[in-house]
Design a protein that fits this description.
This protein is of the alpha+beta class and about 350 residues long. About 45% of the residues lie in helices and about 15% in strands. Helix 4 packs across helix 16, helix 6 crosses helix 14 and helix 10 runs antiparallel to helix 11.
Length: about 350
């Protein structure tokens, strides 16, 4: 028996949505060597079908090249959300790095505003989010409340599936946590004023059949409630000594089973042609959205294609709710202060080394 035979038997024995998924791992070599990871990003940023949702958060958003591909997809009708950290939430808040981020986010805001009528006619959207949570990561109820309170005019073009049931779960997160006996960690004096940082280097891509079809299933409200309790479990384990023994990333069986139930039920209701239109990709790895990762560094990226790529979809929904969405250059500057002329020129000159 070969290894391929063993894998085939295991896949055939599965009844959940993971059997419909595929995984590929890509590596960029250091220096001016083959960069297959970059190719994969370019394909995903430029070839998702119209109506797709593209979410691209990153701690170092500096690449005008990748931004132009995403802007082009928005012109074709994709709904694109570019998310970068505000200054308070930047893991690497160096002035040269923030100079690059400020300039690029402003260009995207200007482009999105100027082209919004055309983009909307095509069914697309292009918005810039600056990650700016108003509470610590331990305040789970507060984070959900911030997301519920966010009301941007464009959000109905993306989050129209967020019905009363899901709103109710998010608004009552504090009650679910209290019933589970969760107590937020008391912040120390050293971190009481610190803001959570945006370290996420993951992207989500979902076709309209997934985003506007599967995500409207009423079962997602139950998934959201279980997700609230999952976040509490993560926080509690991170505060105890067994955090090193038991992975805080382990997904509870009940949550995994509910997601599988919702996804499988939806898939089974579709014709083969409709199932083929279910395009989902989830990428996660080491590469940032900057020129150094793109050109010089050795990087790794895992791409999950298929329904298993929805594993992080609720994280991405909450992430968007913890952002401010500037519509003017002044609003960008308020969250991501502009550099002086010298730092802007220097950052542009040495962009590949940043």
């Amino acid at each position: 028996k070969t290894y391929d035979d063993a894998v085939a038997r295991d896949v055939a024995a599965r009844s959940d949505y993971s059997a419909r998924s595929r995984v590929i791992e890509l590596h960029n070599e250091t220096g001016f060597s083959p960069k297959p990871l970059n190719v994969a990003k370019c394909v995903l940023y430029s070839l998702m079908p119209p109506g797709s949702v593209i979410k691209v958060p990153d701690s170092l958003w500096q690449s005008h090249f990748y931004a132009s591909l995403i802007a082009g997809s928005s012109l074709r009708g994709c709904r694109s959300l570019v998310i970068a950290p505000s200054l308070r939430s930047a893991p690497s808040p160096g002035p040269h790095l923030m100079a690059r981020a400020n300039g690029l986010m402003k260009r995207l805001v200007v482009f999105g505003n100027a082209m919004d009528d055309y983009i909307e006619r095509e069914g697309g959207i292009l918005k810039v989010g600056l990650y700016a949570p108003r509470q610590g990561s331990g305040d789970i109820a507060g984070r959900f409340q911030q997301a519920v309170d966010l009301r941007e005019p464009w959000m109905s073009r993306v989050y129209h599936f967020f019905d009363e049931a899901m709103d109710s779960v998010a608004s009552n997160a504090g009650r679910y946590l209290a019933e589970a006996g969760y107590r937020p960690p008391v912040p120390s004096e050293a971190d009481s004023s610190a803001s959570p940082k945006l370290h996420l280097k993951a992207n989500l891509f979902a076709s309209p059949r997934v985003w506007d079809g599967l995500m409207t299933d009423l079962g997602w409200s139950d998934i959201l409630r279980l997700y609230v309790l999952y976040l509490a479990r993560q926080q509690e384990r991170s505060q105890t000594r067994d955090a090193a023994v038991h992975s805080i990333q382990e997904v509870p069986e009940e949550l995994s089973r509910k997601v599988s139930e919702v996804v499988n039920t939806y898939y089974d209701s579709l014709s083969p042609e409709q199932q083929n239109a279910m395009v989902v990709f989830f990428t996660i790895g080491s590469a940032n959205m900057d020129y150094r990762s793109q050109v010089m560094n050795g990087e790794v990226m895992v791409t999950i294609g298929g329904a298993s790529g929805l594993a992080g979809v609720v994280d991405f929904i909450l992430l968007a709710g913890l952002c401010e969405w500037p519509s003017t250059l002044e609003e960008v500057d308020a969250l991501l202060p502009p550099p002086g002329w010298f730092m802007r020129r220097l950052a542009s000159l040495v962009k590949i080394a940043l």
